[in-house]
Request: fold
Amino acid sequence: MTKKIIKIDRDLCKGCGICIEYCPKDVLVGSDDLNRYDNHFPEVLCAQRCILCRRCELYCPDFAIEVEG
Ligand code: SF4
Ligand code: SF4
Reply:
């Protein structure tokens, strides 16, 4: 089975939450931590639930997410 990898470049993130909102499987959650621009970036809660739809990657306005798998 191919490994699912959700790469998040935390410092590109502006904390809009779109990726979290539009993920159909609740894979992502907002981090308690802040990036260098004081934005709450997303974290992967459960990669196993990911169906590789790539909505997070496509909808992120700042190209902060890349999905491989
Ligand atoms: S690829 Fe789809 S299921 Fe996987 S984290 Fe992104 S939005 Fe969620
Ligand atoms: S959609 Fe992009 S900019 Fe918005 S919270 Fe997610 S990673 Fe950050």
